[in-house]
Amino acid sequence: MSVGNATEEPYEDMSDHDWIYTATGSFSYVVCVIGLLANTWVIWVLLRRLGLKTAGNMYILNLAIADDLFLAGLVLQAAYQIKNVWPFGEFLCRAYFAFDGLNMYASAFFVTALSIERYMAVSRSSRARLHRKRRQAAAVSVVIWMASIVAAVPTLLATTYQASSYQSVPNGTDHLCLMDFTSFGHPGLAFWSQAFITYNFVLGLCVPLTVTCFCYGRLIIQMREVSMRSEAGADVKRVTRIVTGVVVVFFICWAPFYLCRMILVYNQDLIRWAGRPFLFELSLVFTYINSCVNPFIYALISVKFRENLPCVALRGRGYKSGKRTMVCDRNSTALTDIQHNTVITNNDSS
């Protein structure tokens, strides 16, 4: 079983599955490097280039922050998977699981907020003032972070730092960092495990999926009724495509993970199934990928993000008078902003 993005298996009978955990841990390091660079770039673009004048940009910023927090802790999880023991002490054990659970709920809630924002942006007959929208989005973001913290409390309560029965060194002091419900008492371990997994499934997948499906159903109807031929309509379509990409990828990456946990926790006969570790780790890898793939969606769909990809500092043909010039697309916003000392102020940019 698992909580959040982290494994909670006590690594029993590891000799048969070492390669699975080593492969997952090694892949996690790759995800960490790519994801941290990509999400940090998104944060920089939003704060320094595109601005936070829209609710969508505000939610995307917070989503990138949540992913960066998780990816920073994923380094510890990767080492845990490879070494089969937790060498970082009790404090980091509990801190990692707390941030892991926080990221899981924050990601789901901000993706839901993006869906609601898109529906409201299209369905409103008149737009609110920009500063009012920004204040509202900031307030919603604070509420989402607070709700995520509260939702992650059961994760923190169930986190256990305990001596390992699988000792790599005789008489050693190896420890595990995992979820343990044995201390919860009546009505027993099986009940609390099922209750916890169901709680995560409903709050992290079912509720966001239901709200998102409703918003997109209404959104499709609204976009058919409203003319989208104007420039403003093109902006609405562009931003909607970005949000749609984020939402679809989120559910593709997380649905196998949640469904796998639900199947395993309610079918005890599968506990000793030889394919269980492989299936579980594969579903886990998809959740890791989700934390670093969003920036690529923004760059793929949004011209505004593509225009703010890092320029390449080159000498040679662009080298004049001993000075280096930044070689970018000649039509890119990054270049024209430098030339004209301006900042992007497109109200609908994302």
UniProtKB/TrEMBL annotation:
PROSITE patterns: G_PROTEIN_RECEP_F1_1 (PS00237), G_PROTEIN_RECEP_F1_2 (PS50262). The keyword Cell membrane applies. GO terms for molecular function: G protein-coupled receptor activity; neuropeptide binding. The chain crosses the membrane at residues 20-47, 59-80, 95-116, 137-157, 197-221, 242-266, 278-301. GO terms for cellular component: neuron projection; plasma membrane. It is a multi-pass membrane protein. The keyword Repeat does not apply. Keywords: Cell membrane, G-protein coupled receptor, Membrane, Receptor, Transducer, Transmembrane, Transmembrane helix. Its main location: membrane. Pfam families: 7tm_1 (PF00001). GO terms for biological process: neuropeptide signaling pathway. It comes from the Eukaryota. Residues 38-298 form the G-protein coupled receptors family 1 profile domain. It is found in: Cell membrane. Belongs to the G-protein coupled receptor 1 family. This is G-protein coupled receptors family 1 profile domain-containing protein.
